[in-house]
């Protein structure tokens, strides 16, 4: 189960990285002040699609196991986001933490929460 969860995370990380590139390169040009919300909604749509596809592959047997899938993905995404910010883009801790700050108009924290609970929602449907 752990390897399958890791494979799901890798796909999520790739898709969310592409989503971020699209936000910067395309959405900002055309949607300016709506860029973050559009990117957030597109990112969540991808999370739902990936979760729907991977949950049957991972095959959790209980609602709690579905929660563990989402929690694992969320923790790995937080680590991935911090790694990319710190190592690749060499951002300050303040800048990285601002990405998680909903009061600054950033939706990353909401996305992480949704990653935690989406497998549970799909499991019960």
UniProtKB/TrEMBL annotation:
Transmembrane segments: 6-26, 38-58, 64-84, 105-124
Keywords in alphabetical order: Membrane, Transmembrane, Transmembrane helix
Keyword Membrane included in the entry's annotation: yes
Protein name: Uncharacterized protein
